[in-house]
Amino acid sequence: MKKHSKRYKQAQTLVDYTKKYDLKEAISILKKIPNTKFDESLDLHLKLNTDPKKTDQAIRGTVVLPHGTGKKIKVAVFCKGEQEKEAKDAGADYVGGQDLIDKVAAGFLGFDAAVATPELMKDLSKLGKILGPRGLMPSPKSGTVTMNVGKIINELKTGKIEFKIDKQSGIHVSVGRISFAEEKLFENANTLLNAILNAKPASVKGQFITGISITRSMSPGLSLAL
C-alpha cells in the first residue's frame, strides 16, 4: 500500500472529496497546500463526451493564456531565406533549414515547440517518428506551419498552448504555476475552459464536458462543478 507524505496528508485535510468546487474556490484551496521544493504546475483534467475515433470529434486546438504558463519555452524554427532573419529577430532559440533537420535526426531535441514554413514540411515529415510522439511536429491546425514565423514565435513565448483529446476522451493541460496569483490562475484556467467549450463539435449531442478536476503537480485533485 502506497504511503503518502506528511505534506500530502496535510493537503488531504483541506479537500472535501464529496464536494464539487467552483473554480475560484478550488484554486484558493490548492494555493493553501504547503509548497514543495519546486514551483508546481496547476493542471486541469477534463473528461469529454466524445469519440476520438471519429475524425470530427478528435478535438485539437490552441489558446493563448493571458498570463502565460510560467515556463520558458525554447522554440525551434525550420525555415530558410527571409524567414530565418524574422525567426531570429523574434527570439527563436534554434533556426535552420536542412542543417537543423539533420541535427534533430541525429538526436537533438533541446526545444519545447517547433515551427516550420510550408516549404520545409516535406523534408520535416521524415522526422515524424521523432517529433510526433513528443508532440513537437509542426501542424497547420495548431498554427505552427506558417510563413508568419515571427507572430507564432511571439505567441509561443508568451503563453500559447495546445490542447488535444487523448484516446480516453480526456484533455490534460497545465494552466500556470502555483506561484501565480490566484486571479491569474483563474483567468488562465477560465480562458482554457472557454476555448475547449468553443471547440465542441456539432456532432456531439448533450453534455460536452462530463467531468473536470484541478490539481497541483503533487496534490490531491479537486472535482469542479460543471
Order of helices and strands: HHEEEHEHEHHHEEHEE
DSSP helical segment count:
8
User: What best-fitting shape do the alpha-carbon axes yield?
Assistant: globular
Can you summarize the main beta sheet?
Answer: 4 strands, antiparallel
Percent of residues in helices comes to: 25-40%
User: What is the CA-atom radius of gyration, in angstroms?
Assistant: 19 Å
Q: Which stretches are poorly predicted, pLDDT < 50 over at least 5 residues?
A: none
What is the fold-level CATH name, i.e. the topology of the largest domain?
Ribulose 1,5 Bisphosphate Carboxylase/Oxygenase
How many domains? The number is: 2
Explain what you see:
- There is one protein chain.
- The protein is an alpha/beta fold and 226 residues long.
- It folds into 2 domains: 15-68 and 161-223, Ribulose 1,5 Bisphosphate Carboxylase/Oxygenase (2-Layer Sandwich); 75-156, Ribosomal protein L1/L10, domain II (Rossmann fold), CATH 3.40.50.790.
- Helix content is 31%, strand content 21%.
- It contains 8 helices and 9 strands.
- The chain has helices at residues 6-13, 23-32, 82-89, 98-105, 121-124, 128-131, 149-158, 182-198; strands at residues 41-48, 60-64, 75-78, 94-96, 113-116, 160-164, 170-177, 209-216, 222-223.
- It has a 4-stranded antiparallel β-sheet with strand order 7-1-8-9, covered by helices on one side. The chain has a 3-stranded parallel β-sheet with strand order 4-3-5, with helices on both faces.
- Helix 3 (82-89) links the parallel strand 3 (75-78) and strand 4.
- It is globular and about 55 Å long.
- It starts with 5 loop residues before the first helix and ends with a strand.
- The mean pLDDT is 91.
